[in-house]
């Protein structure tokens, strides 16, 4: 099963996701940080 989390960005190991289009700036930042690591 899955748990829905009401946050702009959620990271679970290598999976990074967001809720809606207005969250994309925070999502993009999380993706960039993950790629730097």
From TrEMBL:
Domain DJ-1/PfpI: 1-33
Protein name, as recorded: DJ-1/PfpI domain-containing protein
Pfam families per record: DJ-1_PfpI
Upper classification of the organism: unclassified sequences, metagenomes, ecological metagenomes
InterPro entries: Class_I_gatase-like, DJ-1/PfpI
Organism, as annotated: marine sediment metagenome
Family matches, as SUPFAM superfamilies: Class I glutamine amidotransferase-like (SSF52317)
